[in-house]
Design a protein that fits this description.
With about 270 residues, this protein is an alpha+beta fold. About 40% of the residues lie in helices and about 25% in strands. A hairpin with a 2-residue loop joins strand 8 and strand 9.
Length: about 270
């Protein structure tokens, strides 16, 4: 039997989904990654976009070694939802925003290889966040792609973001201790992190319950008042014939019962 020798183009290429390395180097880094992922996923819900975290991003077809795993990346104009990994040539879109949670141990890679790679890939915004402020005193650095002229030739390079605003996301980023706070540019509203969202939902439940109790109390008070009014009406109706038998005039009956003459006349048989 003659064997078949597969050429590289015919051989199925395996693109791993993990490499066995830990997700983050510390609890602080893990908390930031999870928070950014959760907040942006909620924010972009319903849009043609996805947020991925610590998943392989493959950027050269047929080369599974050409990969990187951003801490958080946001891709627009793709189907929402998760993936096992992300291949640019299949999806047709590069990430528009990437966050790397940095530390002294990853500084060289974050500001060297990844910086150059994301710049070449056309990632519109690249954010570095140092939650402990170990090498970035202000904790947060952002960069955006800009077309410039360098030595007479047009180039697209990263320039610093100095106002904390992500134009790609339409959000303002603000340092809040060891986390990043995200605020909408159109309304100024803060995007709640999971803990804040749970607290807000709990407060909403309390408010709804308080309103329900108040409405129930109001309804009960109204029923009591209506019942008392019916009892008073019945008492007057029953008393009128007896008072008339005693020879009292309408004015005297009205005064005795605490009513007006008009009301007494309405209840006369």
């Amino acid at each position: 039997m003659t064997g078949i020798l597969l050429t590289p183009a015919q051989t199925e290429i395996f693109y791993p989904t993990e490499d066995g390395k830990p997700l983050a180097e510390s609890y602080d880094h893990l908390q930031v990654i999870f928070t950014i992922f959760a907040v942006l996923t909620q924010y972009l819900q319903g849009q043609q976009a996805t947020v991925l975290s610590n998943q392989f991003l493959y950027y050269i077809q047929h080369n599974p070694r050409a990969r990187v795993a951003p801490d958080v990346m946001v891709i627009f104009d793709v189907a929402p939802g998760g993936r096992q990994n992300y291949k640019i040539w299949e999806e047709g879109q590069s990430p528009r925003v990437i966050f790397e949670i940095t530390s002294p141990g990853t500084r060289s890679e974050d500001t060297g290889f990844k910086y150059s790679l994301y710049e070449q890939m056309g990632v519109e915004e690249y954010w570095l966040f140092d939650p402990k402020g170990e090498w970035i005193p202000e904790k947060l650095k952002g960069y955006y792609l800009q077309d410039v002229v360098v030595a007479g030739s047009d180039e697209t390079i990263y320039l610093p973001i100095r106002d904390g605003i992500s134009q790609a996301l339409q959000l303002r980023l603000q340092i809040e201790e060891k986390l990043i706070g995200f605020y909408r540019l159109d309304t100024g509203e803060k995007l709640l992190i999971p803990d804040e969202l749970l607290a807000a939902l709990e407060n909403q439940k309390v408010t709804v319950e308080t309103q329900r109790v108040a409405l129930e109390s109001e309804r009960s008070a109204r029923v009591v008042a209506e019942t008392e009014a019916q009892r008073e009406k019945l008492r007057i109706q029953q008393a009128i014939p007896k008072l008339r038998e005693l020879g009292l005039s309408l004015e005297q009956i009205a005064a005795t019962l605490g009513s007006s003459v008009e009301e007494i006349q309405q209840w006369l048989p």
